[in-house]
Amino acid sequence: MGKGIVVRLVRRLTGVLATLLAASFVIFAAVYAAPGDPAVFLAGGRDKLTPERLAQVRAEYHLDEPLAAQYGRWLWDCLHLDLGRSFKYSDQVSDLVAARFPTTLQLVLYATVLFVVLGVGAGVLAAVKRSTWVDSAVVGITTLAASVPSFVAAIALVSFFGVRLGWFPVTGSGSGFLGTVHHLTLPALSLALGALALVSRVTRQAMADAAASDHVAAARASGVPEREIVRRHVLRNALGPIVTMCGLVMAGMLAGTVVVETAFGLSGIGSLLVGAINTHDFPVAQAVLLLMVTGYIVVTTAVDAVHPLLDPRVKEVRS
Amino acid sequence: MTHPSRRPTGTGTGRAAPRQGARAAAGLVAASLLAAGCAGADTNTLGGAPADAAKLALRATTPPAQGPLDRADWLLEDEPDSLDLDRQGGSAGRVVLTNICERLYQLQPDMSVKPFLAEKARTPDDRTLVLTVRDGVTFHDGSKLTAADVLWSLKRHAAKDMEQSDEFGNVSSMRRTGPRELTIRFKEPDALFTKALAGDAGIVWNPRRVADAGKEFGTPGQADACSGPYRLKEWKSGDSLTIEAYADYWGPKPLTRRVVFRWASDSALVNALRTGAADGTYAESPNTAAALRRTKDLRQYYGPSTASLVLIPTARGGLKDPAIRRALSLSLDRKGIADSGYGGLVQPWAAPVGAGAWGYERPRFAAAQKKLSATAPETPTADDLAEAKKLVKEAGAPGDPVVIGTDSSQGRTVVANATRAALQRIGVPAQIKTVPPAQFEEFYSDPQARADIDVLVADWYISKADPMGFYDNGLSDSSNNWVGFKDAAYDRLVHKALATLDDAERARLTTEAQRRFVDAAVWIPVAQVPTALVLSDRLTGPPASQSYLYYPWAARLGARKG
Q: Any transmembrane segments, and where (chain A) (predicted)?
């Protein structure tokens, strides 16, 4: 039994590392192939764009080497825990990312809390009040919310609650717990709105499936109160798909904060990534994208890990 | 020799420039689509009242401050790349650092230049400059600033891979010739060298501090290495940067004790100013300033700048004939561009450099510019159009459509469309080629990228307050002379002017070079782009001109009421 767990862990870890390695190469190649020439951004002023100066810059940053050699160089440094220096900022990539990651993480966590509470809540409400006006209203409102792109939501929220009413700050990420919550409320809301429909729909459907099972009917027949049935049987059995969906949505958000960060003037890894792609800042783009991939893997792995705990039926199949 | 840059309209990409352009939201969102894989739109259509370009009064400075201020919140359009301007010349870093560091010469708000950390300068002959280093100046670590430190700094600026190395092209030797004296010798007389010393080539570093920091110099968490009125208190990467008044400063004490810099772009920047979360910004994009016009509690000041919007023709051939280029210049609706592309905050202009370059002999340059306006009307008259059509007819219209290269930012799109309209009006077929912002910069650097276009919708500025810092772009062998203009007389004139130390004589030669450059339409001037300072109405004091990049503007910032 213990041995089985170790083997499974090793297998899982190997899989994660292989995924990261493959992702790192794909990302490196994609950034390398993107239009535009990094040397232009490194050379200095426009009048400095003489062929000689560009050649000098390319040599200095090894941009004149073939893709495989550049990737090898990056990988070698990476294995020594050196992510290199940003072309643009000349600062250590690890410092740049470390300074900005907390902002993005807080934003995603806050947004996750919002869409879980509101989305799952709305889904449960719709399932319990199935086929009534409440159900239709939930489906209608969440669908409407989902059809608004996050940057439109961001701009609308800022101009109304930030500029017009002055209830919330319009830029920056704040300091201290309350300050951060105050600053990140509107950005997190813009991020969460799009996920509401999906999460509430999945919740509603999972509850409906669970409610249709035999033992729920049996419980009903034996006179267990309805509230008890919903809580102990229906919701409990529906948790698997709900948690999976929430995990996937949250993992996806890690890579989707950029638009909202820009609209709210937040310096997170999303805006760092866009700047890096625009200026061909290889080391930074590489590190941020890998961090996003890692975040995705971590979240989905965690979901996989809790799944058997939620649903005993899954356990047997999984191993 | 010049320090051109992307300025007002593009997506601010990178260090290609001493002064980054504002990120056009469209570009940014488009880029974020690549990153995030969703759909976006242009958030740059912000409200605001248009100005009348013709009535825009330019002023060098704002009314003097009357009272002290504990803290000012200032906005930048981007986080500084680095505070080591020898390695990264982005403008966000320069706006901050010019309050922390000092230069051998200083650019004044009126764009003139005077000796500064070099308190005296002598030129025993055309090829020798003797500088006397100011006494009683200390760096922020308390150590005394010496002639040896100055020499060390100059040598660092001149090193091969540093941003300013090309300013030292004419220098044959730099030596310490006395306790407070440096002597610089030149291979050729260099009229622009002292102007360069008012820029980043004249920053005096504390060598001990630079050596201590090593590779990390200029990155967040490092102390500064300078002697200016403010010292760097803290730079929290990705969050904010704070400077505070330096207690032992040798000059007058600033009124404002602390300035906290944050950064935001487009609508976030506009909203921060609208809600009073920030006190001011030097708007890099006229569209930002346009969006904030007539906002309660905010004032705007416009100042002379060297920046301009231009059309740069290429060697591809559609605009090979100077007659066609002159015709295009005659038929371009510059006022229409200023009004609909830039909210009236740029001014139709007939020279390729803005009025901020007139750091000396201003009346002469102003008169020359007025004279040129016949070749570049604000709004083409019937006569202008008839003349343009005649030029095209004599030269023969190009068979293939003229391809106009641009990116998708609001201002540039308007310029591109106006250019197409102007060409079509005079019987020249034209089409627009739009590229992503990240690719746009390549037009400037890569002749192969330019092989697909006949003319580029461009912007340019020079860092020195001397128009002569621009006209070397028309030299036969300049990499910025894309259209292949070759004129031996012009080349001689430029070299002579660059080696003429006498201001009046250099101004005469410069206006002559300018006339030839415009006649040949090597570039086609569109508009000058004034500096726009947006400031809370509780505050006043800093310069409104382009000098804010090289002058300690925060030291003049203070409360309006004493």
A: 107-128, 137-161, 181-199, 238-264, 284-310
pLDDT digits (tens, 9 = 90+) for B201-258: 999 999 999 999 998 999 998 999 999 999 999 999 988 999 999 999 999 999 999 9
pLDDT tens digits, residue range A244-261?
888 888 888 887 888 888
pTM, two decimals, is 0.85
Identify residue B1 by its one-letter amino acid code: M
Nearest to B277 among A40, A44, A171 (CB): A171
DSSP chain A: -HHHHHHHHHHHHHHHHHHHHHHHHHHHHHHHHSSS-HHHHHS-SGGG--HHHHHHHHHHTTTTS-HHHHHHHHHHHHHTT---B-TTT-SBHHHHHHHHHHHHHHHHHHHHHHHIIIIIHHHHHHHHTTTSHHHHHHHHHHHHHHTS-HHHHHHHHIIIIIIIS--S-SSS--SHHHHHHHHHHHHHHHHHHHHHHHHHHHHHHHHHHHHTSHHHHHHHHTT--HHHHIIIIIIHHHHHHHHHHHHHHHHHHHTS-HHHHHHTT--SHHHHHHHHHHTT-HHHHHHHHHHHHHHHHHHHHHHHHHHHHH-HHHHHHH-
Fold of the B308-528 domain = Dipeptide-binding Protein; domain 3 (3.10.105)
CB-CB neighbors (< 8 A) of A55 in chain B:
none
Residue from A263, A32, A49, A278 nearest B12 by CA: A278
- Choose the closest CB to B2 out of A34, A47, A90: A47
Q: Do B460 and A46 touch (CB under 8 A)?
A: yes
Tell me the average pLDDT across A260-278: 85
Tell me phi and psi for residue B439, to 5 degrees. Answer: -90, -20
| Residue A266: closest C-alpha in chain B | B264
Q: Which CATH superfamily is domain B105-209 in?
A: Dipeptide-binding Protein; Domain 1 (3.90.76.10)
Nearest to B200 by CA among B232, B165, B170: B165
CATH 1.10.3720.10 residue ranges of chain A are: 93-315
Residue in A90, A107, A193 to test binding to B, most B beta-carbons within 10 Å: A90
Residues of chain A contacting B88 with CB distance shorter than 8 Å: 88-90
Q: Please, which residues bridge with residue B402 across strands?
A: B430
Least confident of A38-42, A59-63, B355-359, B441-445: A38-42
- Which of B237, B279, B308 to substitute to test the interface with A, most A CBs within 10 Å? B237
**CATH number for the domain whose boundaries are A93-315:** 1.10.3720.10
Segment B92-96 shows an average pLDDT of 93
Strand partners, B237: none
State mean pLDDT over B115-125: 95
What are the domain boundaries of chain B? 105-209, 308-528
